[in-house]
Design a protein that fits this description.
heterodimer; A: alpha/beta; Pyruvate Kinase, Chain: A, domain 1; 6 strands; about 15% strand; B: alpha+beta; ATP Synthase, domain 1; elongated
Chain lengths: ~280, ~130
């Protein structure tokens, strides 16, 4: 049986770990709430731009634009959005696994763009070519970040360096569930509008000009939205992970305390029997 | 003013800025300013950086928008803007500082991104105009 001193030391160390995980949980909970609000605030724009794009694409009838051009996929790019930091359960692992699954069935050339440190580190360790990386985005996701990323892939796409672009990110379903999702970003497939074609729009200045503005904005917003969802998902994953870590620590402390008490009792019993034995020997 | 109203919704990537019934609005369209009354024909236009003027019941207000789109359909106007600020939300000192900075950069010439400086200047001017 472990000595009393060892047990005491272990209890102390588990307790301080528990304190850390508890604090991290509280921090994540606060950050998650903010991230969640941001996701909710951003939803109206996403919904509207989808609707408008769907209707306009239906009404403008076969407007040609580089971002709509479908090519045979010879070079496929993945934008992988992960967190910068770990300690959030399977959050990053799930995303990377999903990306690997997608890539396995691929016959075309592969390009990787990473957002977040964890995904970058994974693919860099395995000596993959990473075309572009974005790390250290911080707590407040800025629209400009999404615009930078969109600008990069749009350039590559119009330059025919990429033939298809996919976005891998974590969808924030609720606090307990984050779903790794793969979404086709380019070529843009306009969502089918409810009454597409039925509306006879006046276009100012022209259907082409409107689409030329609308499509890049749509791509930017898709990325922005994915970044926000991932951020909220990361924090809720971390909160859940830290919550179970705190619970596990409590359980461990209980077990250790029990063995400590047993060991102490055993030591006392031993001492008493030694004294009794000693006294008996004197008689 | 007529009794009829139309729904105006202004949204930016970050949040929904405005969603109420209004009577009349003038938007900074790329092809010139556009006045929109209720029951306007369906229309889609791109927007300039500029000022959106709104007439709502007895009051008028201005919103600075930095480009985007507007869709008009069934007396429902949706403005999708990069940013949109109501006049009272605008920080005049900051906008003024931004204007001076952009002007200085344009006047200085040399190795600068002229397009970016011009856009910055336009945004600052739109904000100042809306705040007046």
């Amino acid at each position: 049986m472990a000595s009393l001193r060892d047990l005491r030391r272990r209890i102390k160390s588990v307790k301080s770990t528990q304190q850390i995980t508890k604090a991290m949980k509280a921090v994540s909970a606060a950050k998650m709430r903010r991230a969640q609000e941001q996701v909710l605030a951003a939803r109206p724009y996403s919904r509207r731009i989808r609707e408008v794009l769907g209707r306009v694409a239906g009404a403008s009838g076969g407007v040609k634009h580089p971002l709509l051009a479908v090519r045979e996929p010879k070079q496929v790019a993945y934008i992988l959005i992960t967190a910068d930091r770990g300690l959030c359960g399977g959050f990053n692992g799930n995303l990377i696994r999903k990306t690997n699954q997608e890539m396995r069935g691929l016959t075309a050339g592969l390009s990787i763009v990473t957002v977040g440190r964890k995904g970058r580190d994974f693919f860099r360790r395995r000596r993959y070519q990473i075309d572009q990386q974005y790390v250290g985005l911080g707590e407040n996701i800025k629209y400009n970040t999404a615009r930078d990323i969109a600008g990069f892939v749009i350039d590559k796409y119009t330059g025919a360096e990429y033939d298809e672009v996919y976005l891998v990110y974590s969808q924030f379903v609720n606090v307990l569930v984050q779903r790794p999702t793969v979404e086709k970003l380019l070529p843009v497939e306009p969502p089918a509008g409810e009454d597409a074609g039925a509306v006879n729009y006046i276009f100012e200045p022209s259907p082409e000009a409107v689409m030329a503005e609308l499509l890049p904005k749509y791509v930017e917003n898709a990325i922005f939205h994915a970044l926000l969802e991932s951020k909220a998902g990361e924090h809720s994953a971390r909160m859940t992970a830290m919550d179970s870590a705190t619970k596990n620590a409590a359980e461990m402390i209980d077990r250790l305390t029990l063995s400590l008490n047993r060991a102490r009792q055993a030591a006392i019993t031993k001492e008493i029997s030694e004294i009794v034995g000693g006294a008996a020997a004197l008689e | 003013m007529s009794e009829k109203t139309q729904r105006l919704e202004i949204v930016t990537p970050e949040k929904k800025v405005f969603s109420e019934e209004v009577q009349f609005l003038v938007a900074p369209g790329t092809a010139g300013e556009l006045g929109i009354l209720p029951e306007h024909a369906p229309l889609v236009t791109t927007l300039h950086i500029g000022v959106l003027r709104v007439q709502q019941a007895e009051k008028q207000f201005k919103v600075a928008v930095s480009g985007g789109f507007m869709e008009v359909r069934n007396s429902k106007v949706t403005v999708l803007a990069g940013t949109a600020e109501r006049a009272e939300e605008i920080n005049v000192t900051r906008a003024e500082a931004a204007r001076q900075r952009a002007e200085a950069r344009l006047a200085g010439g040399g190795d600068i991104d002229v397009l970016r400086a011009e856009l910055a200047l336009k945004r600052a001017l739109a904000r100042l105009k809306a705040a007046q």
